[in-house]
Prior knowledge:
Layout: E1 8-16, E2 21-26, E3 29-39, E4 45-53, H1 54-59, E5 67-78, E6 87-99, E7 104-121, E8 127-137, E9 141-150, H2 151-157, E10 165-181, E11 184-200
Parallel strand pairs: 4-6, 9-11
Antiparallel strand pairs: 1-3, 1-5, 1-7, 2-3, 3-4, 5-6, 7-8, 7-10, 8-9, 10-11
Amino acid sequence: MEKSTTGNTTRLCGSVDGKASFSHISRNRKFFVFPLRVPRLSGAEDVINIVCDEEKLRALEPDGSPMLRVTGELRSYNNKSGVGNRLIIFVYANEMEFCDGEPENTIFLRGTVCKQPSLRMTPLGREICDILIAVNRPFGRSDYLPCISWGQNARESSLWNVGDTVELEGRIQSRNYIKNIDGIQTKKTAYEVSASTVSRLN
């Protein structure tokens, strides 16, 4: 896929899974969020939150096409409200259009390892490595993005060190899990990048 100069390029094509709701105001602009459902080849589906400004949302005109194509960046922020996940992951939409295309979920990231990667084994015996990378964006900010790699890629990325500059390509996946909060079983969703290719640049 085409790689952005910022090291963060995401391309999605899926079906809108709900109405847009108000998210926040930044630099005097209103932003809204809505879920996009993207099927996998396995039959499972990823539901990814899309954030866009009011102007882009108003300019988006349904034309009867079943799919919405979104090009943008994967972003994160720390949720300090005490409600919901502490790390909020979403796709910031730069461009959106309805289309008849095939489902797509691709991402390219270039960033810096900011936590020592952790190699572990799944219950089914597959090697998996947990990676947290920081990706710079304009105005001196960074997005902290959880990633995973598998098999040979997992063994390779487990050798990375904090401060290494790395590249990953893969897809964004959503994963439901149950967390015990004050004795109550609560359903939550985690988001991460599942990398299909990984490389260290330095």
